Amino acid sequence: MISTAQRIRVLIADDHPVVREGLSSIIDHQSDMIVAARATTGAEAVCYCGALRPDVVLMDLSMPEMDGVEATRVIHKSCPETRIFVLTVYPGDASIAHAIQAGASAYVLKSAPVEELLAAIRTVHIE
């Protein structure tokens, strides 16, 4: 078993409870990952990142108070060591390019297989 200090700390930022809880359940079942926090808005994600310094953020693009692109920009500036994954439903969404320009490391489709998401988290964490 990996100690809590060695596990990949993941912040989930999504305004949909079902998505947050589903991602939390998936991550909590991984021996090398732990959910650091769950944010319901972009502004909350920024606050949690400043306080908790997670390794990885799973960021929804469309959230209230502050959208995912702006939250990505702020987090990337204040916590450059944190890797940010954009979560999106639409593969051709123009906001993906804006999020990458704002500092996101990559994007993952919400329709992607669970194994693909987990592999992406692990890969970006070791880079």
Name of the CATH first level? Alpha Beta
Q: Give a quick account of the main beta sheet: strands, pairing sense, barrel closure.
A: 5 strands, parallel
Radius of gyration based on Cα positions: 13 Å
Distance between the termini: 23 Å
CATH topology: Rossmann fold
Low-confidence stretches: none
Strand segment count: 5
CATH superfamily: Response regulator
Percent in helix: 40-55%
Number of helices: 5
Please state roughly what percent of the residues sit in beta strands, choosing from under 5%, 5-15%, 15-25%, 25-35%, 35-45% or over 45%: 15-25%
The CATH architecture is 3-Layer(aba) Sandwich
Structural class: alpha/beta
Q: What is the N-to-C succession of helices and strands?
A: EHEHEHEHEH
Mean pLDDT: 92
Which outline best applies?
globular
Number of domains: 1
Q: What strand line-up does the widest sheet have?
A: 2-1-3-4-5
What does this structure look like?
With 127 residues, the protein is α/β, with parallel strands linked by helices. It has one domain: Rossmann fold. It contains five helices and five strands; from the N terminus they run E-H-E-H-E-H-E-H-E-H. It has helices spanning 17-28, 42-52, 68-78, 94-102, 114-126; strands at 8-13, 33-39, 56-60, 83-88, 106-109. The protein has a five-stranded parallel β-sheet, sandwiched between helices. The mean pLDDT is 92.
